[in-house]
C-alpha cells in the first residue's frame, strides 16, 4: 500500500487518546480523534487503575478513527493497523480462564514500600543490575510482584500482562509481552533479551506467568468478532506490536540527525538519555541510577527517570480541587519574570512521588534544606522548572560520561516541548541547544513503526526520522552565555542527601 491509515492508541498516566495517522513515503499526517481521562482510583488503602474504562476509551477511539478514515476515503475495512503504547511497569493478572483478576494497581501505590530492600537482600542489588540493567525504582514490576506475593490474587494468577498487552489481548485474544515494555520490568535479562527464570522464581511468579515476547513490528493478531463489532472495524484489521512503552515510541519520534543527540521525553515523567547500541551495566551506571531499556530496532534506551512535570501537574490539580484554579499560560509567563535560583528542590526526592499536597511538600523540602519557601504560585512554578532543568542537565551530563559518548544537541519531545520556559531553562542548564518538538512524538513513533510493518515505509530509524524532519517544525532554544548562576545552583544542590 502506498499510504497506511493506522490508529495509534497512546495511554498516559493522566489521559489516553487515539490518534489517526496517514503515513506514506512523502506523507505524515496525524489527527487526534478521541481523548479520555485516566485517573487512578483510591479504594481503601490501595490505588488502582480503572483499566476497563481505559479499554472502553480505546474502543470508542478506534470507532471514531474508523469513521474518520472512511470519511476521508481510507480503507473500506476502516483501518490498516492498530498500535497501542502506554506507561510502563503496571500489569494485570489473568486466571486460568483468561479472565482479569481485579483492577491493576497503580505504580504510585504504597504497597512496595520496603520491598526493594527485601528483594535486594535476597538477590543482591548489584547482581540484579548486572542481569537486567534496569534503574532500581521502587515501583518496578519486580517489586510490585514481590509485594503481591502470597495474596489470593497472586495465588490465582496464571498470566501477567503489562497494560498495553492486556488491552491488545482483549482486542485480539492473543497473549504476549512487547519487548520494549518488558525491558522495564526488572524481570528481563538485558544480555539475552529473554525473561529471567531466576528472577521470576525469586519473586514468586508461577512458571509460564510471563508470556511470549513480541518485538516492534510483529503481528499480534486481528480483531476478535466482539472487538470488531464494538469498533465498527472489519475483523481483518491487524493489531501490531509497536514500541509499547510510550518512551520507546517517543524516541522513534525524535527528529534527530546522526547519533550525537540526547533526548528528553518530557511529560509526567522526564525520561532523559541516549540511544545506544549496547547496554551499559557498570557499577558506576548502577550507582547513578541509569536504566538500559530495549528500543526499536535493537537499540538501547540508556536513560534516567526524572520525576518530570508531575510536580507542576499535582500543584495545578490541587489548586483546582481547592476551587482556586490557575491558568497555566499566565502562570508560566509570571514564573518567567520571577528571579532565578531562589529555591531549588530535587524532583526525585521520594516525598514527591505520591499524589497529594505538592505545594506543601515543596515548602517542607525548602525548609528542610534551609531555603526560602516560595512566596507565590509563580515563584513555586519557577522553583519547579529550574529544579527540573537542573535534573535534566545532570542526567544528560552523566549519560555522556557513563556511556562514553558526547552529544551536540538535546531533543525535547512530548507535552513538555510546549513549555517554552522549561525548554529555555533546560538549554541554559545543559549549555546545549534544545530542539523542542514534536509534541506528539509518541503517537508519531507508534504510527511510523506500524507503517513500516505494513510495508508502506522501509529502512532504518534513520529513514523514519528523515520523514519526521520533513513534516515537523520543532523550535530551537539556544543556551545563554552566562552559566555562573547554573553552576552555583548545581553546587547548592550537590550536598542534598536525596540526590544520587
From TrEMBL:
GO terms for biological process: D-xylose metabolic process; rhamnose catabolic process. Residues 262-453 form the Carbohydrate kinase FGGY C-terminal domain. GO terms for molecular function: ATP binding; rhamnulokinase activity. Residues 49-253 form the Carbohydrate kinase FGGY N-terminal domain. Pfam families: FGGY_C, FGGY_N. Keywords: ATP-binding, Carbohydrate metabolism, Kinase, Nucleotide-binding, Rhamnose metabolism, Transferase, Xylose metabolism. InterPro entries: ATPase_NBD, FGGY_C, FGGY_Carb_Kinase, FGGY_N, Rhamnulokinase. Belongs to the FGGY kinase family. This is Carbohydrate kinase. It comes from Catellatospora bangladeshensis.
Amino acid at each position: 500500500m502506498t499510504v497506511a491509515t493506522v490508529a495509534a492508541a497512546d495511554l498516559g498516566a493522566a489521559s489516553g487518546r487515539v490518534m489517526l495517522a496517514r503515513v506514506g513515503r512523502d506523507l505524515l499526517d496525524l489527527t487526534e480523534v478521541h481523548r479520555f481521562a485516566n485517573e487512578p482510583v483510591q479504594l481503601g488503602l490501595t490505588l488502582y487503575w480503572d483499566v476497563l474504562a481505559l479499554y472502553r476509551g480505546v474502543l470508542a477511539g478506534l470507532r471514531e478513527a474508523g469513521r474518520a478514515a472512511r470519511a476521508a476515503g481510507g480503507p473500506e475495512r476502516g483501518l490498516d493497523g492498530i498500535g497501542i503504547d502506554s506507561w510502563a511497569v503496571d500489569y494485570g493478572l489473568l486466571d486460568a480462564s483468561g479472565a482479569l483478576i481485579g483492577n491493576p494497581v497503580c505504580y504510585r501505590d504504597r504497597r512496595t514500600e520496603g520491598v526493594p530492600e527485601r528483594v535486594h537482600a535476597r538477590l543482591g542489588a548489584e547482581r540484579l543490575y548486572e542481569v537486567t540493567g534496569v534503574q532500581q525504582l521502587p515501583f518496578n514490576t519486580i517489586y510490585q510482584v514481590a509485594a503481591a506475593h502470597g495474596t489470593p490474587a497472586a495465588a490465582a494468577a496464571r498470566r501477567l500482562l503489562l497494560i498495553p498487552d492486556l488491552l491488545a489481548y482483549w482486542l485480539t485474544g492473543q497473549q504476549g509481552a512487547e519487548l520494549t515494555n518488558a525491558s522495564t520490568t526488572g524481570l528481563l535479562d538485558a544480555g539475552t533479551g529473554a525473561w529471567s527464570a531466576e528472577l521470576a522464581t525469586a519473586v514468586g511468579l508461577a512458571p509460564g506467568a510471563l508470556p511470549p515476547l513480541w518485538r516492534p513490528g510483529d503481528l499480534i493478531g486481528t480483531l476478535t468478532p466482539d472487538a470488531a463489532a464494538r469498533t465498527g472495524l472489519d475483523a481483518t484489521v491487524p493489531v501490531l506490536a509497536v514500541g509499547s512503552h510510550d518512551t520507546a515510541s517517543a524516541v522513534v519520534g525524535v527528529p534527530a540527525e546522526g547519533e550525537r543527540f540526547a533526548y528528553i521525553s518530557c511529560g509526567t515523567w522526564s525520561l532523559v538519555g541516549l540511544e545506544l547500541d549496547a547496554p551499559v551495566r557498570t557499577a558506576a551506571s548502577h550507582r547513578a541510577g541509569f536504566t538500559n531499556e530495549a528500543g526499536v530496532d535493537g537499540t538501547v534506551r540508556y536513560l534516567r527517570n526524572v520525576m518530570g512535570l508531575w510536580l507542576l501537574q499535582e500543584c495545578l490539580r490541587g489548586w483546582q480541587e481547592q476551587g482556586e484554579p490557575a491558568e497555566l499560560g499566565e502562570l508560566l509567563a509570571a514564573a518567567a519574570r520571577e528571579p532565578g535560583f531562589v529555591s531549588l528542590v530535587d524532583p526525585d526526592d521520594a516525598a514527591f512521588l505520591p499524589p497529594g499536597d505538592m505545594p506543601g511538600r515543596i515548602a517542607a523540602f525548602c525548609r528542610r534544606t534551609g531555603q526560602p519557601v516560595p512566596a507565590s504560585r509563580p515563584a513555586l512554578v519557577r522553583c519547579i522548572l529550574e529544579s527540573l532543568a537542573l535534573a535534566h542537565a545532570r542526567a544528560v551530563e552523566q549519560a555522556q560520561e557513563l556511556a562514553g559518548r558526547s552529544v551536540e544537541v538535546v531533543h525535547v519531545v512530548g507535552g513538555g516541548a510546549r513549555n517554552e520556559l522549561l525548554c529555555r531553562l533546560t538549554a541554559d542548564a545543559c549549555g546545549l541547544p534544545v530542539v523542542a518538538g514534536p509534541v506528539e512524538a509518541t503517537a508519531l513513533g507508534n504510527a511510523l513503526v506500524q507503517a513500516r510493518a505494513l510495508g508502506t515505509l522501509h529502512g532504518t530509524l534513520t529513514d523514519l526520522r528523515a520523514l519526521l524532519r520533513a513534516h515537523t517544525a520543532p523550535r530551537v532554544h539556544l543556551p545563554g552565555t552566562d552559566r555562573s548562576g547554573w553552576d552555583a545552583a548545581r553546587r547548592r544542590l550537590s550536598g542534598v542527601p536525596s540526590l544520587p
